[in-house]
Amino acid sequence: MSAAAILDLGKIPSKVNPELQSERDCSSLTPYISEITAIVDGGRNNTEKRRQIERILFKDPLFRDCAIDSVYKPRDEMYARGVERSVRLFALKEEYNWTDEEFGIAVYVINHQYSLGLHTVMFIPALERLSTEQQKAKWLHLARNYQIIGTYAQTELGHGTNLQGLETIATYDATTEEFILNTPTVTSIKWWPGALGKSVNYAIILATLIIDGKKHGMHPFLTPLRSTEDHKPLPGVKVGDIGPKLTFNTVDNGYLILNNVRIPRENMLMKNAQVSREGHFTSRGPSKANYSAMILVRVTIVNWCSVILSNSSTITVRYSAVRRQSTLDSSSEKESKILDYQTQQYKVFPSLATAYALFFVSKTLKNRYLKTYAEIMKGNFKNLPEIHCQSAGMKALSAEMTVELLEISRQACGGHGYLAASALGDAVASAKALVTVEGENTVLYLQVARYLMKRFAAAVSGERLSGSTEYLCMDPIKYSCPINSPGDCMNVSLLCQVYRFRAYRMISKAARMLQRDIEGGKKQHKAMNDNLVQLVRAARAHLLYCMMVDYKESMNQLQISVPVSKALNNLLVFFTVFNIVKNAGDFLETESIGLPQMEWLKETEVKMLAEIRPDAVSLVDAFDIHDNTHGSVLGCYDGNVYERMLKSTQNEPLNQCDVHYSFHQHLKPFLQRNNTSKL
Ligand SMILES: CCCCCCCCCCC/C=C/C(=O)SCCNC(=O)CCNC(=O)[C@H](O)C(C)(C)COP(=O)(O)OP(=O)(O)OC[C@H]1O[C@@H](n2cnc3c(N)ncnc32)[C@H](O)[C@@H]1OP(=O)(O)O
Ligand SMILES: Cc1cc2nc3c(=O)[nH]c(=O)nc-3n(C[C@H](O)[C@H](O)[C@H](O)COP(=O)(O)OP(=O)(O)OC[C@H]3O[C@@H](n4cnc5c(N)ncnc54)[C@H](O)[C@@H]3O)c2cc1C
After folding, report:
1. Reported ipTM
2. Is pLDDT of 5 > 60?
3. How many domains in the chain?
């Protein structure tokens, strides 16, 4: 770049950075990128549809800088802009007649930077799942047409995890045929629901139902909170924002205090349980049927994780192909690309491989969920425990992986990864929320462990199992490690057997430890608590095995060209081997593999880094993520990293004048205190 151009901070070269261009020129995968993009989008038509949505959104300045502009704005403005974006997004949905799926694409395109997400993510799905047909006819179109805006208000100050412990109460008054809602204690105050603070006028409030002094468990109550005339809180309602968070500050997560708020009997969402005019309580289906909206969101989070990692690996791979630092070969005149260092590949490729893995895994999980949901809608709850276990567990495992890998990606960009303009810091902080929302990860792993203990006991008593736990019927004596040569480490089917045995061993160990403690005289709850750590380990091992199987089988179903198959298979092998090496202790301790196999696997792992290297840029290009979506100066398609960094300094409010007012107010009087102006 010339000195003159350096002074013109607004200039971004019109050409792609030759460093990135050479990557694209040299990758044999480049001609096949659109084939992979079509897989990720679910077909070439969908790719075109997404690009059309991008064109619509990004011709509007309101959305163009959405991924990054919040950095420079005070909270108040961020919220206002988030509401403006929400309203524009809803209007565009109507204008272009977008389906729910297309609306979902639009939300991805703007990287979730809007305020009223809870209305779509939870309020409408909860209405669909918890209402009777009559209630749906009354409320759903109002919500879908944005005549009412709502949220899902379950968590309280004192309880998020333990739903039996929720203290908000809905007491039935048969004389007026109303429920009276109260948050009678400090700990019962609703706390966290998205868009509650300032935006919504309705909420589905999860409260303990009381009739004639008797408790009937947690139920959903559709409750108006603000006037539809002037948006003021209705009588008995106190509501506000809970304050700034690590990220998501466009969203007004709120608190809610209810003091004798009366709602008509018809506003209890009665699909799963009914209260008659006279106050007679009946229920149908399992007691946890009211937890169903959470299952859907957990399934969705697995897909979000894949999207987050696609964004971050786009940034880190492109940046690593542009950045040069030190040199591998002292005779070379040029410094080396950091992407050529094996250690850099080891930081960057796990994210890339996991982005693809979670894409395939989330697709399978979604299909499994839709199948089970259809059965449940017909009154068949047989597969509910299995889908609860799968959705809760996959949410926990993918959120855990995502946070870990994202932070490594951020570090892989060195100092520049610490700049807000890299967008990686915000991505890490946002992903951290996914570990907690929709069920705290440890708690969800323990739900999986509870299911596994039951299934293991059933297997031991001779029951034939199906679904994800079918393998618990295995005879461990018959296992011998299937990896007999270094070449076997590339065989994912063999590696899946290794994962399966490790899971079996860890589950049986947890079961044995529990049994030992109970037989030793410990009470059930004490025995459980004394083994929670092993139970979580067992759950993780099971989920990782399930993930491998779903990934492998999903890949097997693809009809793809040879180069694409080779590139995607490299990622599959790397992901499978990487997660064994990462958990080496468990695999060795359970004797799923021996020391020689571990040596071979470690060699295979680094060999795969070299296999992936030539196609790394093509593999992230294939995600086809718009520069405005990831919003990172480091990760744009043209690779003009340094020019974009310089340009981004123009957005900094401190740079709007040469001499800041604080100089006159503070620094100047201080410097001149001894009359040094003559120096
Ligand atoms: C690209 C960037 C994207 C970023 C975008 C970010 C946007 C963020 C939006 C986030 C929105 C967040 C919303 C929320 O967080 S809403 C609140 C969510 N809250 C929770 O998830 C609460 C977690 N707690 C629970 O789910 C349960 O309390 C728990 C499972 C922990 C235990 O339940 P309970 O207290 O009732 O325990 P029990 O021991 O009595 O019951 C256990 C039995 O119940 C079965 N069970 C549990 N849950 C379910 C379910 N959902 N479906 C079916 N069955 C369930 C369980 O299997 C046990 O059965 P058994 O008794 O037969 O063993
Ligand atoms: C960004 C964000 C958005 C949210 N949006 C909403 C929303 O829209 N609506 C809504 O209702 N809620 C919302 N929530 C709340 C969220 O669902 C809860 O925070 C979550 O369910 C965890 O509950 P908790 O905060 O009570 O954590 P806690 O349960 O208090 O967890 C604290 C610690 O205790 C441990 N722990 C708790 N119980 C057990 C147990 N039984 N066994 C072992 N360990 C245990 C956990 O593992 C954790 O380490 C949101 C939260 C966040 C961060």
Report:
1. 0.98
2. no
3. 3
Q: Give the per-residue pLDDT at 65.
A: 87
Q: How close is the Cα of 575 to the center of ligand 1, in Å?
A: 29
Question: 438 CB less than 6 Å from ligand 1?
Answer: yes
> If you take atom 40 of ligand 1, which residue's CA is the nearest one?
164
Find the ligand nearest to 446 CA. Answer: 2
Note whether 471 and 611 are same-domain residues: yes
Annotation marks residue 438 as catalytic: yes
Annotated binding site: 155, 194
For residue 377, the tally of other CB atoms under 10 A from its CB is: 11
Instruction: Report percent pLDDT > 70 for the chain.
Output: 98
Mean pLDDT (whole number) for 145-167:
97
pLDDT in tens, 29-86: 999 999 999 999 999 999 999 999 999 999 999 999 888 888 888 999 999 999 999 9
CA distance 263 to 180: 7
CB 161 near ligand 1, within 6 Å: yes
Domain that holds residue 44: 23-114
| Pairing label, strands 202-211, 169-173 | parallel
> CA 53, CA 58: separation in Å to the nearest integer?
8
Q: Which of 593, 620, 647 is the last residue of a domain?
A: 620
User: Residue 547 contacts by C-beta under 8 Å, 6 or more apart in sequence?
Assistant: 357, 361, 394, 397
CATH number at 170 reads: 2.40.110.10
Ligand 1 pocket, 308 CB below 6 A? yes
Instruction: For ligand 2, say whether the CB of 433 is within 6 Å of any of its atoms.
Output: yes
Spatial distance between the Cα atoms of 614 and 353, rounded to a whole number of angstroms: 14
If asked whether residues 189 and 246 sit together in one domain, one would say yes
CATH (domain of 49):
1.10.540.10
Q: In whole angstroms, give the CA distance from residue 141 to residue 147.
A: 8
Domain match, 319 and 255 both: no
Tell me which of 294, 358, 424 to substitute to probe ligand 1's pocket, judged by most ligand atoms within 8 Å of the beta carbon: 294
**Mind listing the pLDDT tens digit for each residue in 554-565?**
999 999 999 999
Question: Residues 274, 305: one domain?
Answer: no
Tell me, in angstroms, the distance from the centre of ligand 2 to residue 586's CA: 29
pLDDT digits (tens, 9 = 90+) for 357-414: 999 999 999 999 999 999 998 989 999 999 999 999 999 999 999 999 999 999 999 9
Do 96 and 145 have their domain in common? Answer: no
User: What confidence tier does 3 reach under pLDDT thresholds 50, 70, 90?
Assistant: very low
Q: For residues 305 and 246, state if they share a domain.
A: no
In a domain, 531, yes or no: yes
Q: Which amino acid is at 400?
A: E
**CA-304 nearest atom, ligand 1:** 1
Ligand 1 atom having least distance to the Cα of 291: 51
Q: Of the listed 54, 400, 438, 611, which one is catalytic?
A: 438
Residue 68 alpha carbon to ligand 2 centre in Å: 28
| Distance from the alpha carbon of residue 286 to the mean position of ligand 1, in angstroms | 14
Pick from 123, 161, 444 the residue to mutate for probing ligand 2's pocket: most ligand atoms within 8 Å of its CB. 161
Q: How far, in Å, is the centroid of ligand 2 from the Cα of 125? A: 20
Q: Does residue 353 share a domain with residue 326?
A: yes
The secondary structure of 482-511 as a DSSP string is: ---SGGGGG-HHHHHHHHHHHHHHHHHHHH
CA distance 575 to 309: 14
241 and 337 in a common domain: no
In terms of DSSP bridges, do strands 254-258 and 190-191 run parallel, antiparallel, or are they unpaired? Answer: antiparallel
